[in-house]
Write a structure and sequence with these properties.
By secondary structure, this protein is an alpha+beta fold. It has four helices and 19 strands. Helices cover 19% and strands 35% of the residues. The N and C termini lie far apart (72 Å).
């Protein structure tokens, strides 16, 4: 057992602790617990998953209520977790017939004497009109990190990819561990992506919305036959189109590169499940204020190499650095 050394200095007791040293049988025996080893590693390896990419990524075969976690490593409070060789399969409880719920796929460290493990679990949410994400448990014995949220849709007997929200890059619930002395804060990447998606689908300034509105205005101007019923049908079609765009982007993994001195990532890649490149967004031609004036989108074929299409926007800003126009060249 590790021996605390006490010495009196004035009126204060100072306890010194040290580890690790060899034991001398029968004279000065040193015994150490697993948690003392974990405490040592906690000083310089933080919680999260290693490497990113497909490491411990949650997926589905879209046939039933089962999901899988791909092989990889996690590190929780000084304890190692590993899925080796084959994906780990977990199964969600059947959906409520009337209300949606949100489940969470977690890796749980449990140091209680009856358990002493690190394992993957599904935290089942409560069905509700507005379902809430189950809270993670983090106390002196149990610590959970979240790999993904899974929306379980009422009355549905199988899970599709768009129902899975990857949380591995969110430092609040998981995050990445890339080396021993610094943890990369990926929360900003995660938040920027969500903000980008919201901006593209928002009304009336989102690019996707404006593209649809331009088409609708052209139809209205050239035919003059658009009725209120047709207008309402087109609005419904736009809502469905927004949902389809979100579902499509949810199926791609996001990676950001080339961070500038202002903390802006100048290259963002979207990759398919097989890690081939789907789309690359690059900002360039920064002005003296650091505002990028060109945004280039490149779309690639299924091989991830063959360029299918390129879209280039010329961006202008006002004196406050806010975007005032984004024109396709």
């Amino acid at each position: 057992m590790e021996k605390p050394l006490c010495r009196l200095i004035g009126r204060r007791d100072i306890v010194e602790r040290f580890r690790f040293f060899d034991s001398i049988d029968g004279e000065d025996e040193r015994y150490y617990t697993a948690d003392e080893f974990a405490e040592y590693f906690r000083q310089f390896i933080r919680n999260g998953i290693f490497n990113g990419g497909e490491n411990l990524q949650v997926g589905t075969d879209e046939r039933d209520m089962k999901i899988f976690i791909k092989p990889g490593y996690a590190w929780i409070e000084g304890y190692l977790y590993k899925i080796e060789k084959e994906p780990l399969v977990l199964e969600h409880s059947m959906a409520d017939p009337e209300l949606n719920r949100i489940d969470r796929v977690v890796i749980r460290l449990d140091k209680t004497l009856e358990n002493r493990y690190v394992k993957a679990f599904i935290l089942k949410g409560a069905p509700a009109e507005t379902p809430q994400v189950p809270e993670l448990t983090r106390d002196e014995n149990i610590y959970e990190i979240s790999l993904a949220q899974v929306e379980v849709i009422a009355g549905k007997s199988f899970i599709e990819a768009h129902q899975i929200t990857d949380e591995r890059l969110d430092n609040e619930v998981c995050g990445l561990v890339t080396h021993l002395f610094e943890q990369v804060n990926t929360t900003e990447i995660f938040n920027r992506f969500q903000s980008w998606l919201d901006s593209k689908t928002s009304e009336p300034d989102g690019d996707f919305y404006r593209e649809w509105k331009d088409w609708f205005d052209e139809v209205q101007d050239t035919t003059n036959l658009v009725t209120k019923t047709q207008f309402d049908e087109h609005l419904s079609a736009w809502d469905a189109f927004k949902e389809e765009i979100k579902k499509k982007l949810d199926n791609y993994s996001l990676y950001a590169f080339d961070k500038d001195i202002n903390g802006i990532f100048t290259v963002v890649e979207y990759r398919r499940k097989d890690d081939t490149l789907y789309m690359k967004s690059t900002v360039s031609d920064a002005d003296e204020e650091g505002n990028y004036q060109i945004n280039t989108w490149e779309f690639f074929d299924t091989d991830g190499i063959t360029l299918l299409d390129t879209v280039i926007w010329n961006i202008s800003y006002d004196k406050d650095g806010d975007i005032v126009s984004k024109v396709v060249s």
